[in-house]
Amino acid sequence: MSALPFLSQLLVEEFGVHPDDVRPEATPVEMGLDSLSTAELVREVEREFEIVLSDDQANFGTLGEAVRIVDELIGTSGA
């Protein structure tokens, strides 16, 4: 199971991102997130999946990259 559904739902419901803006190639800025919102997103993901992202991992460039990082940390292939 991929982290994408959780992240997508979280972005829309908790961070007010328009569903059309939730795309793998979207950057946090393109989704309307500032650095504080991005940090809050990372904390929610860490709590949900019981993982810890390094500083480098927490500075992901796109949603797709964030999903890949989380999927690797939780041991899934995204399938």
CATH topology: Non-ribosomal Peptide Synthetase Peptidyl Carrier Protein, Chain A
What shape does the CA trace take? Answer: globular
User: Any idea what the radius of gyration is?
Assistant: 11 Å
Task: Give the mean pLDDT.
Answer: 94
Description:
There is one protein chain. The chain has helices at residues 4-15, 35-49, 55-58, 63-74. It is built from four helices and no strands. It has a single domain, classed as ACP-like (Non-ribosomal Peptide Synthetase Peptidyl Carrier Protein, Chain A, Orthogonal Bundle). It has 79 residues and is mostly helical. It is globular and about 30 Å long.
Describe the protein's topology.
Layout: H1 4-15, H2 35-49, H3 55-58, H4 63-74
Question: TL;DR of this structure?
Answer:
The chain is mostly helical. It is 54% helix and 0% strand.
Keywords:
single chain, 79 residues, mainly alpha, Non-ribosomal Peptide Synthetase Peptidyl Carrier Protein, Chain A, 54% helix, globular
